[in-house]
Amino acid sequence: MAFKRGFGIVLFGLVCCLTLNARALAQVNTAEPEFWVLTSLEPPFSFRSERGQLEGYLIEVMQGILAEADIQQEILAAPWERLIQESKHKPNVLVFPLARTPEREEDFHWVLPLTSNVYGVLGNPSNDKPIATFSDVNDVTPIGVLESDFRHKVLQAENIRGVATYDDYDSAVSHLLTGKLRSLFFSDAGLRYFCFKQNADCSRFELLYQYDVLTSYIAMSKNSDTRHIDKLNAAAERFLNSAEFHRIQQNWLTKLQEQGPFKLHIENGVLNLW
Question: Which residues form the signal peptide (predicted)?
Fold first, then answer.
């Protein structure tokens, strides 16, 4: 009798254990994988308002795509270096805006182009001789650049001396104005914005050397779940052709032109900063 009672208890426990394991396995198989949306703030296209909320053209576009994909996920702002590290080493990380460079081509799934910009070395042409090749950048140092940005990597690869790294371009532009820097590896549109923001006259600064024209994208880290990739690609295509996307673009085109001497135009859905 005792044996039967004991065997029944063991059998009942085994059945319960198998049932719980099956339920847990089912939850694992059906649960949405962990998913992150990260951005590095780039005023005036993305910034934190006085109320602490993320705002700007890029933020509204990203929110529109997430809504179109029926994904409820908060956009988190992170320093540029952390954004790159997270997206390189973790799956299911959506990042924006990310410049599409040959070195990054195979490291990400490219979802949607956002902005296109002319990048190069900016400085005072009256003080410096023309730059014919990139190695001539050594003649206009110290040169400022955003730390861990792709432009920082270019300067390192080209063995440029006198590179000064910054956490933000606001400080770098200030140092260019005061003469602590002779040049910046930046964009003309970016320089004009920060000069306008600081109420400074930057008319003496020009593009000394054009490095490249690059397009920034919404991108997904490699090894991401295919469900996310497919859903976002489809949502981005629908949103690109929507009236809401057109409204956001026209609204921010007007706002941005009111914030400084920007040369902006829209072509094939991409905001070109020249």
Answer: 1-26
pLDDT digits (tens, 9 = 90+) for 147-179: 988 999 999 999 999 999 999 899 999 999 999
pTM for the model:
0.78
Neighbours of 57 (CB within 10 A): 21
Residue-wise pLDDT tens digits, 106-133: 999 999 999 999 999 999 987 656 788 9
Secondary structure string (H, E, C) spanning 72-109: CCCEEECCHHHHHHHHHHCCCEEEEEEECCCCCHHHEE
Residues 183 and 201 in one domain: yes
**Residue 180 per-residue DSSP state:** S
**Number of domains comprising the chain:** 2
Check if the beta carbon of residue 256 is closer than 8 Å to that of residue 196: no
CATH number of the CATH domain containing 148: 3.40.190.10
